[in-house]
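Question thread 4412

I'm putting together a teaching handout and wanted feedback from people who do this every day. The idea is simple: show students a protein as raw sequence, then show them the structure tokens that encode its fold, then repeat with a second protein so they can compare. Below is the first pair exactly as I plan to print it.
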Amino acid sequence: MTELLNKESFLEKVFNYEKNKEWKYEGDVPCIIDFYADWCGPCKMVAPILEQLSEDYEGKLKVYKIDTEVEQELAAAFAIRSIPSMLFCPMDEAPQMAQGALPKPQLEKIIKDFLKVEK
């Protein structure tokens, strides 16, 4: 299941940017963070794919969603200019951002190659 994050849960589960200057991922498994808005058409296309991926990789990968309309401070902290934007957070490396509605095969490749998660 994808999980909706607000600022408080983001600081706790992903990265506490108020406490740490350097990136320090707080999670116990890699994650994908989907920055989206309810009115965004491409975001709606990606949502069921991310839901499916969260089920396919349950226990090995977390999929979080951040509503950029509600969580404007988080969107600003990551300089989100277009949506959907996805932040890929591996365990021991810096995260990478991708923009646009990525197709499922491309997301699966990123999960395998960058996040180093196998089904």
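The second pair follows. I'd like the answer to focus on this one:
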Amino acid sequence: MAITQAQIEKITSLAKSYGANRLILFGSALEDPEGAKDLDIACDGVQGWKLFELAAKLEEELHIPLDLIPLSPSNRFTKYIESKGKVLL
């Protein structure tokens, strides 16, 4: 399941509408696109329940299982994502 440019544009557009100011793609969709079964995205700028609403909306729009995690507060995992992931926004 390689992610397409159209899907990236949909993700960034929808995320911006929820207030996202940073998105980073990481995990299997980046490391092994053909073998990936879901999308892993880290997000900054979307707080509280809105993050869960955004995740549900993205899954609904893309028809792809998705994990959306917050980049804040910063920790070892988010720093790893920032160093290895692909910045979408």
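Top answer:
Good format. For the second protein you could add a caption like this: The helical segments are 5-17, 28-31, 49-62, 76-84. Residues 49-62 form the longest helix (14 residues).
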